[in-house]
């Protein structure tokens, strides 16, 4: 496994000191479709001096991500990267359907076998960045700045965390669940307490929160309050116990459960779905905290949130201060395509495809 410290210079100004971990077997073609490897061999045998241009695009409105990683990949595994001319948009650029985001010009055998990997990098990073961007935009429909915590550690293979965390950062999430998710942009993971901590204290939310506060006094104190399925009761318990030290409470009620608040106030039932983290529960929690003077305690919600659910909350004015989002952000829904479109400076492409120059592209200098 190679660690590549990539410092982009030249016309494209990017963040620096990313560390990309590439498997040495990329060079052998281990991760490339076999037909690309055969084409590399044939190009080297029959048309070694041909110069081709490959362009990459996708079909959605999106937030581009993965270009630095792709350029580092090419630079590392091309035998002669100086022989290649690369033009690219930047990570974080808003892109349109069919807009060219990257072009590579040079001998096919220098980079063509990486085509599938390039598509995959751009697809995953752009999908995550775009999903986070859309969620962040939804969370701020009310006009207030509301952080989105990227909690995707349990929803995919752990080796994806660094790249996914960076893509989430590009999309607008500045709080991430693990240290690995922050590796490429120089921060540390952010987290409070899991249900496991409360279980260790026999379900005693105050005792668990006190242990956390004593052990991590420099952290913002945010208590997880749904363990006993009695969000309001437990929120008030920790608020009374910790006063101004308590910065927030997190509600993560299972979608299969109805909180004890509704069982005590059954007259409220009948007009909405009372399961899980619902708007009525959060309204009631905010009222209960405010009535006892705990206006400073923020409310964090998590558990099954996605863009549409956040939009629904924001349109209703639900008093949420921060959203924790996981699995919905990791679905790969944006696919990239690489096409050869120029041969020795002349148009040459498969039917239905053509060279589409993009004046927004900037030359990459190695």
UniProtKB/TrEMBL annotation:
<comment type="pathway">
    <text>Cofactor biosynthesis; NAD(+) biosynthesis; nicotinate D-ribonucleotide from nicotinate: step 1/1.</text>
</comment>
<dbReference type="InterPro" id="IPR037128">
    <property type="entry name" value="Quinolinate_PRibosylTase_N_sf"/>
</dbReference>
<keyword id="KW-0808">Transferase</keyword>
<feature type="domain" description="Quinolinate phosphoribosyl transferase N-terminal">
    <location>
        <begin position="35"/>
        <end position="124"/>
    </location>
</feature>
<keyword id="KW-0662">Pyridine nucleotide biosynthesis</keyword>
<keyword id="KW-0328">Glycosyltransferase</keyword>
<dbReference type="GO" id="GO:0016757">
    <property type="term" value="F:glycosyltransferase activity"/>
</dbReference>
<dbReference type="InterPro" id="IPR053190">
    <property type="entry name" value="NAPRTase-like"/>
</dbReference>
<dbReference type="Pfam" id="PF02749">
    <property type="entry name" value="QRPTase_N"/>
</dbReference>
<dbReference type="GO" id="GO:0004516">
    <property type="term" value="F:nicotinate phosphoribosyltransferase activity"/>
</dbReference>
<dbReference type="InterPro" id="IPR036068">
    <property type="entry name" value="Nicotinate_pribotase-like_C"/>
</dbReference>
<dbReference type="InterPro" id="IPR035809">
    <property type="entry name" value="NAPRTase_arc-type"/>
</dbReference>
<dbReference type="InterPro" id="IPR022412">
    <property type="entry name" value="Quinolinate_PRibosylTrfase_N"/>
</dbReference>
<protein>
    <recommendedName>
        <fullName>nicotinate phosphoribosyltransferase</fullName>
        <ecNumber>6.3.4.21</ecNumber>
    </recommendedName>
</protein>
<dbReference type="InterPro" id="IPR007229">
    <property type="entry name" value="Nic_PRibTrfase-Fam"/>
</dbReference>
<keyword id="KW-0597">Phosphoprotein</keyword>
<keyword id="KW-0436">Ligase</keyword>
<dbReference type="InterPro" id="IPR013785">
    <property type="entry name" value="Aldolase_TIM"/>
</dbReference>
